[in-house]
User: What shape does this take?
Amino acid sequence: MANPSAEREQWGSRLGFILAAAGSAIGLGNIWRFPYVTAENGGGAFVVVYLACIALICLPYLFAELALGRNSQKNPVGAIKAIRQGTPWVLVGGLCVLTGVFILSYYGVVAGWALGYIFKAFVAPGIDSTQYFTSFVADPARVIPLAGVFMLVTILVVYGGVEDGIERWAKVLMPLLLVLMLVVIFRAVTLPGAGAGLEFYLNPDFSKIDGGVILAALGQAFFSLSLGMGAMITYGSYLPKRENLLVSGGYVALFDTSIALLAGLMIFPALFAMNQDPGSGGPALIFQVLPEVFATMPLGSFISAVFFVLLSIAALTSMVSLLEVVVSYFVDETSWSRAKSVWMVGGFTFAAGLPSALAQGGSTFLTEQVSLFGVTGFFSIMDYLWGNVSLALGALLISIFVGWVWGTGRAVEELQQGSEDFFEGPIARVWVVFLKYVCPIVIAVIFVGKVTGTI
Assistant: This one.
């Protein structure tokens, strides 16, 4: 049974929450996925649409998750149970917890790749990047220990608790991430020929905008903020009532978006300077194309190592939030302590990630013979089910729950606490319209796009 007498942990400061929540949102999706999706969808024009989606769709939904979390002071399951106990809506919170578990299981594998690539430029110089990547990810003796190291570090951070663990490390890792990105950006934009990359990225050609670009921007904007899996509900539950959710949530979205935009400044000038086609890399851009670009640069080995250090940091801050969602559930809803919850959940997710670690060539069966809904390979199936379909479904149901079940009136009251009378009148009414009507429709479109594979 739950332990209601345990005092709820809280963030030590607004800055600590903002950096931790931004760290949750900032991950491989910003530094790995955003650049190649931008390249495939017209460069600067895609960026403009992406920014509009952040402001008009993601931010209203983000406020809803934060309000639900702080009002209940619970994890996703507990938050919904406090409002509609004994109804099927509680299953939505359960979906968030399961999504966190299974995304974490395979996300840790990719994080391990980034960790291993820190040393690639030094231990395997001159080797073809595609050949190296193929052999690297297919080697269980390297991939599994790296994933284990990443999971162990994640466990130790979450073990420390909200203020002494997550917040303390966020205050170190997030500024370090920014500094490392600026180092890579400085080197990239000073390369001969980098101007063409800046032109592609920063000068929008609006004739390239079509329905596909808009859908891609919606999908990238929404999921880059870690919405739909209960992370912001959980992080919001540790906020005191005096905190201004609008300001804090706005800073989280600002930091997350800024890191994505900086990722483009790292990558596009370097690609054009080295005469690489930015649209040819796709998902392999980070691990196959960029190492070749770095290899041709002055100080390329150093820049490559710095880049994969920052990629590892971004992955770690996201993994911490994924683990915290599940740990918070066990701490709130059972008699488990934080220590027991962290080690049990961390151990389970590492074991659950082993098939994903073997599915890149370590096991022919997991790579070629496992298929579901037209998706082949265990790793790809996990990403499709939990990183795409489940996230979109969770976000759709949470937006409906807050807007129509809990009620926007109660949500507005929660958002008004600490907002110094800013969130009222026309501003509150506009938010209600977006949350009740615009967000569910848009998220439903994203969900259909994810299910059908059009996004």
